[in-house]
Amino acid sequence: MPHHYTVALAGNPNVGKSTLFNALTHLHQHTGNWPGKTVATARGAFTYGGDLYTLVDLPGTYSLWADSPEEEIARDFLRSGQADATLVVADATCLERNLNLVLQIMEETHPVVLCVNLMDEAERKGISLDLTALQDALGVPVVATAAGTGEGLDSLRAAIRETVEHPLPPPAHRTGCGGCTGCSQDCRCAALMARAAQVAALSVRVPPDAHRRDRRLDRILTSRATGIPVMLLLLALVFWLTIAGANLPSRLLSDLLMGLQEPLRSLLSALGLPAFLVSALADGVYRTVAWVVSVMLPPMAIFFPLFTLLEDAGYLPRVAFNLDRLFRRAGAHGRQALTMCMGFGCNACGVMGCRIIDSPRERLIAILTNSLVPCNGRFPTLIAVLTMFFAAGAGPGASLTAALLLLLAIVLAVAVTLWASRLLSRTVLRGEPSSFALELPPYRRPRIGQVIVRSVVDRTAFVLLRAVSVAAPAGLLIWLLANLAPGDVSLLQRCAALLDPLGELMGLDGMILLAFLLGFPANEIVVPIALMGYLSAGSLTEYQGLAQLRAILVANGWTWQTALSMVLFTLFHFPCGTTCLTIRRETGSWGWTALAVALPTAIGTASCVALHLLLSLLA
Amino acid sequence: MPQTLDQLPIGGAATVTALSFTGAKRRRMLDLGFIPGAPVSALQAAPWGDPVAYGVRGAVIALRREDARRILIS
């Protein structure tokens, strides 16, 4: 009869807990090198020696006794007694500070296994650890691991098994003052710290220059002279690699997929399907999906891994450090820079990530402004429009121009985020910025191969799934709208005509606005829908790369001014359906959700109208 | 001689003597290692001079100026 054990996974933020969790359970929870990434508990399981172990990944905390929501989650779980054992993960490069939490957990629960992780990083820094001395001093089993490479995981599983089956007696040495009455928190804290320092002195030797490389990198990445320029350069590099790298796969995919449309049509006809159904499936469903896959997928599949590499290396907290001054002046929390960066990947994730901000006022500001930065699903639209209308031609020169324009668009998005945060903190969410402390974690060598493979595969699977589940029905809907024509005018034309006056005022047209509305479930289908709409009027049918795409748009009245408005409205409009639901869940209020929809939409509409009026006046 | 952490020049080192925080903020600072008696050093200022990254107990923690002002040093 196999046993079933529950093991809690606890530790300081950013000690590789999620990586360890993934390595043990073979799950793919997203990992990143910045504190506070795991904001909810995740569960996974592994079998060892015929027994089943459920691993509960608790949020990373510095302490168990403070009052932030993550700490409450972790503390409540540990006190509930649901776990048969607690695995505490500590960072080998920063053991003394980590021991504080280890000692606290040892006071709260029993039995405990200590996993000293990131041994490879410690070795690189010349830090040596005496694990036997550590084990003797603490009185709990200690295992060394390097979760990124999988080293030590077998010993860890064995230690967990040994501990749940034959736990050691609780260590005799209780730290601190345990139950002294009238004891101040300082007293308890200082006692723990003193004990941590004592244990560390027995078991760790840190050479004086251990962190020299990190400090040197910090001087380049965060100093007054180079911090901001290097940040912009890095961003431009990521964009350039995305744009230049997406060209070829995009063309190959579109050749392949568009070439299959006619054979598909013949096949469907041969199966004896009625003509309207063949057209609905081939011209509606298939073509929309093919467009999403060939135009949208390649940039998404390249940008995301590059961004993940920066995250893995520990760069995002430095971005927050660099930009903190601006956020503070906007009345926002310093960690908002982190949630904003998360928004570049996915706004729904960014909104959920706002849990790392513990002041409710500043958390709301971060949630309401998150969709002002473009997510991964909007980057391909920006890239396509900027490339077609402002960086025509091929080769590295054009890619570079497009990358720099995209960088400008992102700087604008960040500026508007700051402006909107300031507006909110002066009106509906008035208040002073609360204090915060941001840990700048050690830099880590990103696991390049692993990150690229993992995130390309994950992203591709994710986009393909969305393409099928969202783009396919949208394609069918738009085909129906285009082909149902009561009174000889298609429903699509009627809807577009209805939106035309507003669209023209904004320098766009009704079809684009309709595409944004129909693209509510997922931003990546906006451009394909607009194209379907234009094409249903029956001009061109084949897609042969961006030049052809541009021809379709120009034939439908697009100019560089339309493109500029398109960029603005892509940056600033209502969040997608998933993000809206996430905002509702995180704020618990439809009112705030409505504001989160209205704010970016108003900003986008107003800036498009202003741009259009300005350009009309100048013309 | 600087009296509060925000006055510590970059590259300088000192010892924490007291915290003028209360409640949860005090708790948070203590957990991060800013306890009386702990050695601290000022490592790096952000591009606009604020916040500043401090080394404390082997970790690097960035504090805004108004928070660093409430940590007394000697």
What does this structure look like?
The complex is a heterodimer of chains A (619) and B (74). The longest helix of chain A is centred in the middle third of the chain and has 39 residues, at 275-313. In chain A, helix 9 runs antiparallel to helix 11, helix 14 runs parallel beside helix 24 (577-587) and helix 15 packs antiparallel against helix 17 (395-426). Chain A has a six-stranded mixed β-sheet with strand order 2-3-1-4-5-7, with helices on both faces. A two-stranded antiparallel sheet of chain A has the order 6-8. Chain A is α/β, with parallel strands linked by helices and 619 residues long. In chain A, helix 3 (95-108) links the parallel strand 4 (85-91) and strand 5. The model of chain A is unreliable at 177-182 (pLDDT under 50). The relative contact order of chain A is 0.08. Helices cover 63% and strands 7% of the residues of chain A. Chain A is globular and about 85 Å long. The termini of chain A are far apart. Chain A folds into two domains: 4-205, 3-Layer(aba) Sandwich (Rossmann fold); 227-618, no CATH class. Chain B has a single domain (5-73), classed as Ferrous iron transport protein A (FeoA) (SH3 type barrels), CATH 2.30.30. Chain B contains two helices and five strands. Chain B has helices at residues 23-31, 65-68; strands at residues 13-19, 39-45, 52-56, 59-63, 71-73. In chain B, a hairpin with a 6-residue loop joins strand 2 and strand 3. The interface between A and B is large, with 42 and 34 residues.
Radius of gyration of chain B: 11 Å
Give the CA-based shape of chain A.
globular
- By CATH's scheme, which homologous superfamily of chain B applies? Ferrous iron transport protein A (FeoA)
What gap, in angstroms, lies between the N and C termini of chain B? Answer: 7 Å
**Roughly what fraction of the amino acids of chain A lie in strands?**
5-15%
Structural class of chain B: alpha+beta
**Could you report the average pLDDT of chain B, rounded to the nearest whole number?**
89
What is the number of helices of chain B? Answer: 2
- Supply the CATH class of chain B: Mainly Beta
Number of helices of chain A: 25
Query: How helical, in percent, are the residues of chain A?
Result: 55-70%
The major beta sheet of chain A can be summarized as: 6 strands, mixed
Written as H for each helix and E for each strand, in order along the chain, the element string of chain B is: EHEEEHE
